[in-house]
Amino acid sequence: VAFLLFILHRHAASATASSAPLVIGVDGGTESIRACAFDALTGKAVGRSCAVPYKTSHPNPGWAEQNPDDWWNNLGEAVRGCLDSLPDGADSSNVKSICVDTTC
Q: How, if at all, do strands 32-39 and 45-53 pair?
């Protein structure tokens, strides 16, 4: 962790809005999957969050089912949506990592 912080700190000295390293955060919840880009140096959101809902079926009382293909397809759509919302000067080629959290 210390090494990563050192590298990010060194990069911060020369970073501009267009060259700041970005991290994409993804949250898969019970009703949708969401993605947002963050400045890796400041933690501030860059652009806007994009949420894509998926269907939950209830074939029997107390059961809940979702299609994993929907999770995968909606993950791509959410990430593309957050990248499409990056402001002028922010560059999607500066994405350094993606972090995923789900409620599985």
A: antiparallel
Q: Taking the CA atoms of 50, 87, 83 and 23 in sequence, report the sign of the dihedral they define.
A: negative
Read off the pLDDT of residues 39-74 as tens digits, 9 standing for 90 and up.
999 999 999 999 999 999 999 999 999 999 999 999
Helix (H, G, I), strand (E, B) or coil at 45: strand
Phi, psi of 9 (to 5 degrees): -65, -45
- What are 46's two structure tokens? 């860059």
pLDDT digits (tens, 9 = 90+) for 21-45: 999 999 999 899 999 999 999 999 9
C-alpha of 25 from chain center: 3
pTM of the model as a whole: 0.77
DSSP 21-35: -EEEEEEE-SSEEEE
Handedness of CA 2, 7, 13, 16 (dihedral sign): negative
